[in-house]
Amino acid sequence: MKLTGEDVRAFVLSLPETAEQFAWGMPIFKVAGRLFLTLPEEETSMAVRCPIIDRDELVQAEPAKFWIADHEAGNAWVRVRLAALDDRAEMTAIITDSWQLAAPRALLEQGER
């Protein structure tokens, strides 16, 4: 199954308080005004929040799937090649993790009720 930017967009927009905008020549997605995902490279990849230590481990373990853009090297972001994802479940797990890293605590606590 080849995942696309439209697959990413459909799932992202199903998450609470998420909005799509356009910046830096690409679609970007925010939760409660906080950036958590972009669709660069003509929507063939996604950039997501990821703690730097985890990001570095992902890139070392699966360099065909994950990489770090030069301008994001000092930030907690990782790029993900959509065509390299195993399935929709992997895509949604990665997106959900990024969303949770950006979402305000109050929003996360609402989901726990």
Automatic annotation (TrEMBL):
Report keywords, A-Z.
Answer: DNA-binding
Alphabetical list of Pfam families matching this protein: YjbR (PF04237)
> What is this protein's record name?
MmcQ/YjbR family DNA-binding protein
Q: What InterPro entries does the annotation carry? A: YjbR-like_sf, YjbR/MT2646/Rv2570-like
SUPFAM superfamilies from the UniProt entry: YjbR-like
Superkingdom is Bacteria
Kindly give the Gene3D superfamilies that the UniProt entry links to this protein: 3.90.1150.30
Q: Does the keyword Flavoprotein apply?
A: no
Which species is this record about?
Nocardia rhizosphaerae
Taxonomy of the source species:
Bacteria, Bacillati, Actinomycetota, Actinomycetes, Mycobacteriales
